């Protein structure tokens, strides 16, 4: 799920670009019997904000588990979020991960013990995220600035079983 959340943020991407994008907050909202996460956003040094910690997947995830997403945008960065009409196609968790690997495996550095390519069901495991800054290169130039809240959910038989939320801040990098 959190893996997918990463991939989701990244899949907004197409080209190389100079944006400053920082993690603001990560929070798991439900599904603690499925994921046990210690991920935290923290200031790494004077200029870098990173996400660090572990994601423990506690049960196997098979093709019956669907992944969906919701985007919210706060243009002024004041937490007044509006639902943003972007969506990724709802896919099952195995397809989602497969697509992620095809498109974004280059952004998996700093992340250890991801499921192997094509693994399905995805076996329980602990994934380690080591001080990972947001890969701003993955985001296109027209990406609107402000705060972005992205929520990702898992559903099983149309019942929501997990929801996580990440907030990132996008500003133009003035190259100073
Ligand atoms: C969740 O992970 C923490 C370590 O990050 C551990 O101390 C705790 O026991 C775990 N909780 C469950 C329910 O597995
Ligand atoms: C902060 O850490 C980042 C990521 O490791 C590094 O690229 C950058 O040079 C560091 N900045 C300072 C001021 O140490
Ligand atoms: C970063 O996460 C690792 C687990 O991947 C943990 O052992 C470490 O204490 C965390 N570092 C900080 C500064 O929170
Ligand atoms: C998929 O996982 C769900 C939830 O754990 C389980 O109820 C279901 O039987 C599994 N389906 C298959 C085909 O293994």
From TrEMBL:
Keyword terms of this UniProt record: Signal
Domain of life: Eukaryota
InterPro entries per UniProt: DUF1091
A matching Pfam family: DUF1091
Entry keyword Cell wall biogenesis/degradation: no
Signal peptide stretch: 1-16
The keyword Signal appears for this protein: yes
Protein name, entry field: AGAP008958-PA
Upper taxonomic lineage: Eukaryota, Metazoa, Ecdysozoa, Arthropoda, Hexapoda
Encoding gene (name): 3291861
